[in-house]
Amino acid sequence: MLILSEFDIQFRVPSPTAVVALLHLHPSLEPRLRSGNELLVKHLATPMFGQSVSTESGQSTIPSVDYIDSFGNHCARFVAPAGYLWLSGVSVIDADPNPDQIYGFALQTRIEDLPSEVLQFLLPSRYCQVDQFGAIAQDLFGSIIPGWTRAVAVRDWVHEKVEFNYNAARPTKTAMDVFTERIGVCRDFQHLAVTLSRCLNIPARYVTGYIGDIRRPYSGPGDFSAWYQVFLDGHWINLDARHNYPRRGRLLMATGRDAADVAITTSFGAAYLTHFYADSYEIGYDGKRIPTPVASDVNTLHEQ
Question: What residues have CB less than 8 Å from 59, skipping those under 6 apart?
Answer without folding.
Answer: 42, 43, 44, 45, 48, 53, 86
